[in-house]
Design goal:
single chain, 603 residues, alpha/beta, 11-stranded mixed sheet, 3-stranded mixed sheet, 16 strands, signal, acetylcholinesterase, serine esterase, Cholinesterase
């Protein structure tokens, strides 16, 4: 009945000219675009899909900085979702919703575009979504990111931007090369500049632009804090489970040059040529061949959760300097309000992909809760799983024993040891690759943003009934997004009918928190600003704000402190040794590890 009514309203809109008249026609600086009407219940949302902001990055423009879109003649039909840039498809679990949900339906090099949703009424607040995917995957047009419900529910303008991925966005052959790295970040910057200059045509306020993104999207947004050219393009940011400080988020130029040369070799472009000749050779290869060569590098040369083509931490087109030097000198945009946070089980998602042969095998062809999918690992499988990450710690036996002690839960009873070992690997993966560095960035921002600006921290603990993965995997990486975009309201049939009402209310509450922050800089009166002295995180679960709220102090404090000490140790090791093998250590250090961990916790 609801569907029939919506169709009737849409028909009336068309009859009265809203669908085909000025309601969907916009006169931009570069030309005219005509959008479409999407009905949300009985409310029209004006959608402008696949709006170009840059010229097609092909031919000589492949691997080059993006060029603004040139003016066009006539009307441009903005009625089809933005095409994905070339990306790596998730083929690990065919036809499994938990994997397929991240795969776009199409791809093209002609992808410098965006989707825009405009509610019928708005105060001009703009929320710009930057998708994640490890810089190798993603699209602004995934169903998960459909902005119509957020736009209609909160009367906010929603924009999803696109950017080049993999080698197309991050190939590097030297600072002076025409492929100088960080093109994907420059794409984002150009898109943000386009929004700043054009959003008034969509009734948006250029002074009320908030960026929000997840994983690599959040890492990208935080990168813009260190980019001089991005400073005046937004005023608030929401970082969901990602930071430019994360291990996987950047690489140094020398390593990226090595990977780029490996790509050239795989494409039969001789590395004996000059750098520019190599770039031109790769430019001449079919896009799909370049994509497949990049995927081969990921599959054969990279560590777990190390992505082949990512931002470089030093350049002279985006960062205009060295990211880490800027961090030390506190040289970043401080005139900013921030929400930053993580999910409870950030690490579990990655285990079936990277540790399949160490006890984390997942069979998507059988029920998720089948005993075969419980990943109850043995002590030897736990140690083997941890060894997969040992190269991150320069194969140090000291570090290995510290992590075995902390995450191995040696005090666990025999009856639940397998579960605790499994959860220990999940916790380590989440802490090391996501949570601790997100908190570290939150600390940095909280201590340095301008006096009238605030930082807010959250801790997400609500599991979705639509989550198709085994329940032991918990509140996984990426599984807060559906609530941010109102999916329980837009696709109710994929949720458990017994919890649907509660999940819809929860989604409405999350959307309101995000919108109120974008609108005023304050998400809720009950959510205090984050301070490094107390480190209070606002817990986002089903009771927010129905029966109250809960604050959690010092999320992951002890383990993050341990990992920080580990990072310092490895950094010192890098300075004093030239090899990547084990560092000889007195055996007494090994026996002192329990005391070391205890002392770190007590400090």
């Amino acid at each position: 009945m609801r569907s029939s009514f919506c169709d009737f309203v849409a028909l009336l809109a068309l009859c009265f000219g809203l669908g085909s008249g000025e309601g969907t026609l916009k006169h931009l600086k570069n030309g005219k675009i005509r959008g479409i009407i999407q009905m949300v219940d009985d409310q029209p949302v004006y959608a402008y899909l696949g709006v170009p902001y840059g010229e097609m990055p092909t031919g000589d423009r492949r691997f080059a900085p993006p060029q603004p879109k040139k003016p066009w003649v006539g009307e441009l039909a903005a009625d089809k979702p933005a095409t994905a840039c070339y990306f790596t498809k998730d083929n690990a679990f065919p036809n499994f919703p938990g994997a397929e949900m991240w795969n776009a339906q199409n791809e093209s090099e002609d992808c410098l575009n965006m989707n825009i949703w405009v509610p019928e009424e708005s105060d001009g607040t703009v929320m710009v979504w930057v998708y994640g995917g490890g810089y190798f995957s993603g699209s602004p047009s995934l169903d998960l990111y459909d902005g119509r419900m957020l736009a209609a529910s909160m009367n906010v303008i929603v924009v999803n931007i696109n950017y080049r991925l993999g080698p197309f966005g991050f190939l590097y052959f030297g600072h002076g090369s025409s492929a100088a790295g960080n093109m994907g970040l420059q794409d984002q910057q150009l898109a943000l500049r386009w929004i700043k200059e054009n959003i008034h045509h969509f009734e948006g306020n250029e002074k009320k632009i908030t960026l929000f993104g997840e994983s690599a999207g959040a890492a990208s947004i935080s990168a813009h804090l260190f980019a001089p050219g991005s400073k005046n393009l937004f005023s608030r940011i929401i970082l969901q489970s990602g930071s430019i400080l994360n291990q996987w988020a950047t690489s140094n130029p020398n390593e990226m040059l090595r990977r780029s040369r490996s790509l050239a070799t795989r494409l039969n472009c001789s590395i004996d040529l000059t750098q520019e000749e190599i770039v031109n050779c790769i430019r001449g290869k079919p896009a799909i061949a370049v994509q497949h060569a990049a995927e081969a590098i990921t599959n054969t040369e990279m560590l777990p959760l190390q992505f082949a083509f990512v931002p470089i931490d030093e350049d002279y087109r985006f960062f205009y300097g060295n990211l880490h030097r800027k961090l030390r000198q506190l040289d970043f945009n401080k005139d900013i309000d921030v929400i930053v946070g993580t999910n409870k089980d950030e690490g579990s998602y990655w285990l079936p992909y990277y540790l399949d042969e160490s006890g984390f095998h997942f069979d998507h062809r059988i029920p998720a809760e089948d005993p075969a999918n419980r990943a109850l690992i043995s002590r030897s499988q736990f140690e083997r799983s941890l060894n997969h990450f040992s190269a991150y710690f320069r194969n140090s036996s000291l570090v290995r024993h510290a992590l075995l002690h902390e995450y191995g839960d040696t005090a666990a009873s025999v009856s639940d040891l397998s579960k605790r070992l499994r959860d220990g690997i999940s916790a380590f993966t989440g802490d090391f690759f996501f949570t601790c560095d997100v908190i570290r960035l939150g600390d940095l921002l909280a201590e340095n943003v301008n006096e009238k600006r605030n930082v807010y921290m959250y801790y997400f603990t609500q599991r979705s009934s639509a989550n198709p993965w085994p329940k032991w995997m918990g509140i996984m990486h990426g599984y807060e997004i559906e609530y941010v975009f109102g999916m329980p309201l837009r696709r109710p049939k994929v949720y458990d009918s017994t919890t649907l009402g509660a999940e819809q209310r929860f989604s409405e509450n999350i959307m309101k928190l995000w919108f109120d922050f974008a609108n005023t800089g304050n998400p809720a009166s009950t959510w205090p600003p984050y301070k490094t002295s107390t480190k209070l995180a606002y817990v986002l679960d089903s009771v927010v704000p129905v029966t109250g709220h809960r604050l959690e102090s010092h999320v992951r404090r002890d383990r993050c402190r341990l990992l920080q000490e580990v990072a310092k140790y490895v950094d010192e090791d890098c300075k004093t040794t030239s090899n990547s093998g084990n560092v000889p250590l007195p055996i007494s250090w090994i026996w002192l590890l329990p005391v070391l961990v205890y002392l770190i916790r007590r400090v």
